[in-house]
Structures are given as C-alpha cells and as structure tokens.
Amino acid sequence: MTVTVSACGLTLRYGAARALDDVSVRLGRGVTGLLGPNGAGKTTLLRVLATAVPADTGAFTVLGHDPGTARGRQEVRRALGYLPQTPGFHPDFTPFEFVDYVAILKELTDRAARHREVRRVLEQVGLGEVRGKRIKKLSGGMRQRVALAAALVGDPGFLVLDEPTVGLDPEQRLRFRELIADAGEDRTVLLSTHQTEDVAMLCHRVLVMAAGRIRFDGTPAELAARADGRVWSSTARDPGAKAGWRTGTGAFRNVGDPPEGADLLEPTLEDGYLLTLDDDLAEVTA
Amino acid sequence: MTATLMRKPAPAAASTGARDSRAAVSALARFEARRLLLSIPVVLAFALYVAWIVWRTLRPSDDYPVLQDADRATQGGPLLVGLVAMLAANQAALRSLRRDTERHFAVLALTPWRRTAAHVLSVVPLALLTAAAVTAQFTWEALKSGAVGRGSVAELLTGPLLVLLFGAIGVLLARLYPSAVAGPLLVVVFLLLFVGGAFPFGGETGPVWLRPVVTTSGVHPFPSDLLGRPAAWHALYLAGLALTAALLAVLVSGGRTRSVRAGLVGVSVLAVLAGVVQTGGVPAATEAARTRASLTPEKDQTCLRRGPSHYCAFPEWTPLVDDWARVAGRVQALAGGSAHERPLLVRQRLEARYGLSGDAALEPATRPDQVTVGTSWGGNRVPEFSMAVAGVLVAGNERRAGELCDGRMVTLMWLSLAWQPDPESVLRNVRLDDSLTGSAVVLSRTEPLTMTAGQTEVVRGLFHRPFQDVAARVKTHWSELTAPGVTTDRAGRLLGVHEEVGLDRCAG
Amino acid sequence: MRSWFARAWSGAALVVPVWRMLPWRALGAAGAVGLLPVALARVSGARPGPLETLVLVRGAVLALALGLAFLLDDPARHTTAPVPARRALRVALRAALVAPVAALWWTAVLLLAPGSGRPPVGDVTLEAATACVLAVAAATVALRHFDEPEPGRGVATTLLAGAVLAPLLLPARWALFVAPADPRWAAAHERWAWVLAGAVVVGAAQLREPLVRRPVLRSPCGTSGPSRTC
C-alpha cells in the first residue's frame, strides 16, 4: 500500500477529556471507513486531519505535506476535500454558485476552467439539472449532495467525509455509495459513519475508534471475523448474550459468548463491530 | 428519484489551472462584488440615488450651475449608497458565520484574512459605479449651456471614497463584532452623526472636516480660488480612513504579515496627517483674496463692453456677460428719456469675508449708473438683476433705488418685469411671501425693496393692459414717472390704470 | 375554564425558558447604542436645543426598535413550531418579558435627555411605542410568511430603510417626523396613534397559525380541512 496520509501519536484534549489519545494511522488510496460510538473522537480525528484544529501533540502528513508548517498546511488544504458533519449552506445561493464559491476558496482561479469543474462535479453528484435553483428550495438529500460536490470540487487527493449519509433515504444512500466508491478509485477517502453497512459495502479497510483511541484497524472481513463463532440462533433470548433480538423469522439472533452446541450463524461486520466495542469496554473497565 | 440512480458516466476531472492565493482573492472579490451589486438594498439605493441625480439636475433653478459648487453637490447622494454598502458588506462578511459554513470554509485553501480582503475589495466596483454616477452628474451640469466655473477632482472623489470607506467599515465591523444587529445600529449612529446634526463640531473650518462629507452649501457661489476648502486633503483623509479600516479588518482576521502591518501604519499616518492638515482653517492668502474680492472686486475682474455698457465679472463668470447684457438691454429698451441709451457699469459683486455660508446682503452701489449682479444666475436671480437695472435707470443709483417709496416703484417694477413672458408669476416669485396682493418685500441682491398694496395693485393692472400702450406711455411720461415725489396714484393714471390707491409710504 | 387555566399554567412554565431564549445580546447592543448619544450629550454638558434632543431621542428609539426586530428570532424554530403552546402565546410571552425592560430603558432615555430641550413626554412615548410595536409586528409578519428561523436581520434592514425613507418620501400632509415647534405636531401624533393601532392589528392578525396554506375551494370530498370527511 502506498501511504498517502500518515499520522503518528495524535493527542488532543478538551479540558480533562481526551478527544484523541495517541492516535496513529496510515492511509492509502481507496475508501477507509471510520466506525465508533458517539463521542469516540471520530469527528475530532477528521477535523485534525482536515487541518480544522491542530492536535496538542503528534504529527501527520498528507500527500507528503506536513501541516505543521504554514506552507505545508496550505498545500494540505489545497489537496483536501472536506464534508463536515453538519454542513452549512447559503440558502440564497444556487448549487452552482455555492460550489463555485467553494472552488474559489480552494484557489481555483481560472474562471472558465473553474466553471467547467463545478459543472462536472454537479453532474457527478446528479445535480446538473437543478444547479440554477436556490439551495433553500432543495430537499435535504439534494443539499447533502451539494455538500459532497463542494468537497469533490477541485479534484482533491484526500477526501474527508464526516457522516455523509445521515438523513438520506435508501435510494440516495445507494447513490452516495456509488459516488464515494468512484471517488475512492484514485484518491484517499476517509469516511466516518455509523452505518456499518456502508463500510461493508464501500471500504477496503476499517478503523474502529472508542474513547479517543483506535481499537481496530483491518479489513471489513477481519472485523466481521472477530465475531466468528460468537453469533448464534435460539428460540428464546439467550440470557448470556451481550445483544439479542427477535428476527423476522421469529428466531432470536444472539451475539456474545454462545452456550455449548449453539446454532452458530454467519457473522456480519456489525457483529464484529459490536463485539470489538464490547471487548474494548471490558478491557477499559477491567 | 430513480433517475438519480441511473449511473451517468462521470466526466473526467477538468484541468483546474494553477492555484494562486492572490488570484483567488481577486476571483472571490469579483464573486462577492457581483452579489453585492445585485443585492436588493444596493439596487434600490442606487436607483434612488440615480433618481435623485436626475431630479436635482433637471430643476429649472439649476440651469446655470457654478461648477465649483456643482462638484460638491455630488457628495450627498453617495452617503446613502455608502450606508447601504456598509450594511451589505457587513452582511456578506457575516454570511459564513450566520449560515454555519465557516467550519467548512476555515479548512479551505484561501485563508480567512484573504477572504476578508476579498470582501473589502468587493466594494470597489460599487465605488467605481458611484464614481461613474458622480461623473455623469457633474458632466451633465458642465454640459449645460449656462455652466460657469470649474470643478475639482478632489471634491468629485469624495462620493466614491465614501462608498469605499463605509464598505470597509462594514467589513471591519463584521470582524470586530460578528452580530447581525451591529450593522443596522452603526447606520443609526452614522445617521445621527452625519445627517441628524449630532456631530459635535460645526461651521466651515476646523474639526468639522473630520466628518466624511462637508458640503457647506452657500447661497452665493465663490470664485474657485476663494473657496478655501481643503478638498484634496479631505479626499486623502477619506482614502486613508478607508484603507485603515480595510487593513485593520485584514489584520483582525489574522493577516498579520509584515506588509499588512507596514501598510496599516502607513495609511493610518496618512489618515491622521490629512485629517490634521484639513482642519487648519482657511489659508491667510485665501482670506486676503476673499477680502480683496469683496471690497475691491475691480482688481480681479475682467470687463467686457456690450452696446453702450460695460460688464465686469470675475473671470469664471464672463460667459454669462451676454445673458446679463440681454436682460439689461430688454429693460433699457423699455425706458424713456436718456435712460434709454445710458451707458451702465454692470459689476459682479460678492461678500466673501464671512465664509461660504454667509448670506449678507451687499451694500448698494452709490456710483451713478453702476448695477450689481451676483454670482448666481438663473431662476429668480434674473428678475432680481432686471430690477437692479430698472432701479438704476429710474432712481440714478442703487442706493437711491433701494430707498424708493413713491410712485417710481411702479415704473421700476414694470420695467423690470414687463418684458418677461409671464410677468405676474415672476412678480409672485420675487416677493418674499409669494403673494400677489398687499404689501410685500421684494428680494434683491442688495437692499430689498418694498411694495405697498397700492403699488402692487397698479403694477398688476399694468400687466393686464396692452403692453405696447403701456410701453408708449412710459416713454412719453418718462421724466414725470421718474421724478422724485410722483405718487403711485399719479403714476397709475399716467400709465392708464385708474385705480384708487392709498397714500405712498413716504407721503405721510 | 379548565383549558384557560391549563394555558395560563403552561404560559407560566414557559417564562424562564423564553426569558433565556430572548436575544439579549442584540437587545443590549441596541439599548446601549440608543442610550449612549443621549448620555454623552448629558455628560458632556452640551445643551442641545429641542430639535437636537428630539433627533437624539428618535435615534435612540430607532436603535431599540432595530434590536426588537430580532425579538422573535428562534434558531430552534423548526423544533418549537409544532408544540401545543400556540404561537400567539409564545410571541406574547416574549413581548411581555421584554416590555418592562424596554420601559425602564425608555425612562432612562427620558431622564437623560436634557430637561430644557426635552420633547413632550407623552407624544414621544407614543412615537417610541409605535416604533417598538412596528418592529415586533414586522417580525411577526416575517415569521408568518417566511420559513426562516432568524428573520431579524431582514426585519431590521426593512425597518431601517423605512425610518430613513419615510421622512424623505412621506408627503407633507402625512408627515410623521415633525419638530415640536411645528404646527403639525398634534396632527402628526394623531397619525402616530393610527400607525400604532395599525401595527397592533397587523401584528395580532399574523399570530394565528393557519390550518391550511391557502384557502381552497370547497369540494364534495375535500381533504383540506382536518375534520372534513367523505
């Protein structure tokens, strides 16, 4: 793997709380998923890597540039596409104007080339036909796509997406996955999400964060494999299960440590994720 | 919705060209300028401003503009545009905070201070548009056939610089106090200070020049050499303030580069220096020239001969000599006896010793056959001049004309007004209370005249009689009509108006 | 009776949260900007004439009115809109909470205005009340017709434009901004009273939350009304 983004020992405190605790990651081309519960430090890590906030300690490089220097930070920003968790909009702008505005802020100065690029990304996210409509008249899903277009404009080498599929309907999510997968073909994409399904479908690699630390770093299959032999089916909820629920078939699906002779099931990435967090919690409390 | 699911082949990423922060600032400034120029408040304010220019310039009283006054008359309108520019620039600079896009924009390549610089620069096109409007307004005035004098570039620059200054203040305010209420409140403060009269300094000289606009519109225009307005220093002061506000906004946004700091020091020194120099008052040489022009105007004037008379004017007013000669000729043509061809000396006079806003009446001339004409022309100034000519023809000199109280007043008023297309409405205009009955004071550039109710009645009666008949009677009875002591009653009868009128003021 | 009591009780329970939601920063800035020139005139010992004092007082009123334009701003509007406590109650509560503060501020303005040039208190109070009610009424209009959680900025700009243009464009027989020595003073204040009444009516009319977006023609099987059935 060619390393494009490399972070080492990132730590960031908010008062007594450690939002990032000695985080080290190395990313290459393709889509890397970032999973974790609320408050795990995902957004903070993304913001540090997006140069929105400097870490207290630690260092990182993006595409060979060191954001620790003014010039390096500027180069990182030039190579960056960022979709914040709750992207704001200028409701009186049209999608074209908004993305054009962002393109200018990304220092795309040749007007004709910039306008071509804005049209291209709007076309890419499926907003070509409404690019002249005011953003306030667009639906939530369309607005989210405007934000993605703003992140994609200028062909950034490093794309940071903070929960981009929140609030989207299944069709829109599908479309988004397509876009993100496209983007990951020749870029480094870091995708923070709560949707394990998105990670399973999109990512060649997944990081799991909890309490400001990276708890897992591997492929989605490896994360799912963590639940091998720990998911089983039963006719009633198994009291020994860490989580269990009645499925549509009427049988219970349990995750945890199975009893002897249990009817084992094929684990999913979500099972692996749940167990990783649970093991991790046990580790911390122990 | 399914349409969005159809996978379209993604076009290849376009070449986006080289990246350069300075060019990006200019691109952003163009983007913001377009939004600023198209924002509803700015469009409305500018439309109102243009309507004001048209209304102001089309007024009939503005047919003979004096260009050294017309230049500073361009400064009031841009004040409105400037205040709106301040609001609009403030709101534009606050947009990303208000719409919560700041978190996104903060990590983009163009740094916040460069964005601030772009917001300041976005006001420049509006300032240029204002400059175009100012130029159009002034050119319109200058192209009028009756225009005299010369304008000053520094006075014309004030309007556009105001727009720039207020726009920069709007951006600075957004960086110092990022709240939507701050802009409107600052407008209120500025309105109180600069329109509402709450500015602590007044007058024509001294600290009053710290105001952005000092119009001191006087009634009587001055020759341009006597204005004593530090217009160039004031323009520098405004430019210095605008740049100070702009660089301060950039500095507050984090642009702490060496050139920004050095520039800030430079422009604030410029603003302070120009601000101090402009408050220095009228230079002694100008004061001396004002005294000379007031007391011994002949030293500065050019005299031209038209017919039997001489016309002496300050050099900038010589284009009006033909207008004066035409009016004097009309009045003289109606006079009888020797007055018909008497050589007159028409001298332009001005009281400049009390400043631009002084409105002191001129002392009437005592020299025989000298007529005074002021520095403004057009509108009521024309009948005022014709009255001065008629007064000298009837009474011999201006002082005696000002003291007239008998029936000679009837001849004077008829001579001065009868040749005009609608003498009755002109009579109404020159009377202080705009009346057509009763006694009234009649305006004049020197001492005002007074008409009694009887004189008014007789003069109006004459306007209703056939012009040729009255003209013939005036010539026939000229010596009796202009003899001291002739009563209004007698004058009326001589001219064919047999109204019963009371006694004259001086008869009792 | 019970429903009235329940409403009053819910209104009382809302007092503290609404008090905390009021745009105190904007109101404070507006109050300070309005009060400052009057206070400066007092402190500096300047003796402004009646006209100058009137201009200062009117400037203060305009500043406060601009602050009040932000009274109904509510960033959480989309969350608070569908609650059972009606919009009229919520708006009235905001107005009621801010009214005593505004009254105190106005008293301070009048006390600070130099005594010799102080304009007739009753009449300028009428002007002040009209300006404040107009500001809140304009905010209710914006609330009703625009889906914007914080319409204050637009309302303030409109109000400011009105305050600048009205003295310039109003014909002499409808003049509102006259000087105390002007013979039209009494007639102008009659007009102020009418404007106040108009603002109250318009403001109150906007408080009703419409059940339908626009009136629809009655149809044999309408679905526009909540109680309409086939």
Automatic annotation (TrEMBL), chain A:
The keyword Transport applies. Residues 235-259 are annotated as: Disordered. It comes from the Bacteria. Pfam families: ABC_tran. The keyword Transcription regulation does not apply. This is ABC transporter ATP-binding protein. Residues 5-236 form the ABC transporter domain. Belongs to the ABC transporter superfamily. Keywords: ATP-binding, Nucleotide-binding, Transport. One of its GO terms (molecular function) is ATP hydrolysis activity.
UniProtKB/TrEMBL annotation, chain B:
This is ABC transporter. Keywords: Membrane, Transmembrane, Transmembrane helix. The chain crosses the membrane at residues 36-55, 75-97, 118-140, 152-174, 181-202, 231-252, 264-285. It comes from Streptomyces yokosukanensis.
UniProtKB/TrEMBL annotation, chain C:
Keywords: Membrane, Transmembrane, Transmembrane helix. The chain crosses the membrane at residues 51-71, 91-112, 124-143, 155-179, 191-208. This is ABC transporter.
